[in-house]
Amino acid sequence: MIVTLSAVAVFGLLTFVLMRGRYVGPLSAIVLFLFGFFTAGTGAATPIQAVCRALADAARNLT
Fold first, then answer.
1. How far apart are CA 55 and CA 63, in angstroms?
2. 3 phi/psi in degrees, rounded to 5
3. What band does 60 get if pLDDT is binned at 50, 70 and 90?
4. CA nearest neighbour of 27 among 40, 18, 37, 38
């Protein structure tokens, strides 16, 4: 649950920055999609959260 809340905060901040800068592209589409997904908490959120958790663990273990 902690990962989900922090992901919502990060994606919310990125969404604000991208909308403020009026940058539209593939990266902003992904950020907006993930922000909506984490805040909605739909049935498909569990697999996406698992992928994000795995990516966070992999990034933490990079040396």
1. 14
2. -65, -40
3. confident
4. 18
What's the rounded Cα separation, in Å, for the pair 26 and 61? 27
Do the Cβ atoms of 8 and 38 come closer than 8 Å? yes
Inform me whether the pLDDT recorded for 10 exceeds 60. yes
Structure tokens at 5: 């809340």
Two structure tokens written together for 50: 């698992």
According to DSSP H, which parts of the chain are helical? Answer: 2-20, 26-40, 45-60
Question: Is the Cβ–Cβ distance between 30 and 7 less than 8 Å?
Answer: no
For residues 24-52, give the mean pLDDT.
76
Average pLDDT, the chain: 76
DSSP state of 14: H
On whether the pTM is more than 0.70, the answer is no
